[in-house]
Design a protein that fits this description.
The chain contains 15 helices and eight strands. By secondary structure, the chain is α/β, with parallel strands linked by helices. Bound molecules: zinc ion (ZN).
Amino acid sequence: MFKDLKKVELHLHLDGSIRITTAEEILQQKDLRKEMIVDSNSHSLKDYLTKFNLPISIMQTKDNLTRVSKELMEDLDKDNVIYAEIRFAPNFHTKKGLSLDEVVKAVLAGIQNSKVKANLILCMMRGDSFLANKKIIDLAIKYKNKGVCGIDLAGDEASYPTSLYKDLFNYAIANKVPFTIHAGEAGTLTDIDNAIKYGANRIGHGIKAVEDENLLGTLRKNKIPLEICPTSNVQTHAVSSYQNHPIKKLKDKDILITINTDNRTVSNINLNQEYELLYKYFGFNKEDFIKFNRTAIEYSFLTKEEKEKLQKEIV
Ligand SMILES: [Zn+2]
């Protein structure tokens, strides 16, 4: 129903989106679905994150990094995605000796020259040291306007609150690196509040904000959109079911919304299916999705000129 609609995706993890057939081919193993897709044994974000172990073990060579990135671009094209910001944590891909530079270059080689326009968001990880995360910001500074458009903070939100990373965000601001922060998924309202205070341009998930009118007011006032990934939110038990997802409430309260898959493989979903589910459970229509995609372009980490060009493509 929404297949032909041109789409924008801002919250998409590379390591959570590698094709199962590719993993099976590289590892010469069969039936890896169970290890790569979330199942009913997952009760939290922490459980969900275990599904990244296998893909990350594969993504340790330049060739494999380039291949999975290139294939993701092909998959995005099938969904009619015209622009994507793809994120990953470079520090995860140095286990077999690749340097951080080599990791970024290998992924860039996979996404550039694709039919779909894309940029990279480099993830700092909750639990990593200050120095390890600072190196990610330095990497983003080095590759700014060369395929890297910003940074993120990802990982186990419940164990590592956003407040631990305040100085890193100050460093990012001082160096004009825009950022989004995963907050209000498994964490608390304070995590979202802090993400806004620290200068986040967007919030990854942020759905918990629905519980607090003051926080909703702050999101509206500061024009901070939420990168909402409904299926993933159900799977990490951030919400109890799809029909109980607060996306409609957030929309009705004039919160800026973008629609995303989070992880195509781990969540076993594509963007078109996500739209279909939102139609099924909340009756969102084509006009709603066009609005969400326009919001995604407006709050993407692209230049003003690039945004204007993309807005013209959205019908
Ligand atoms: Zn995410």
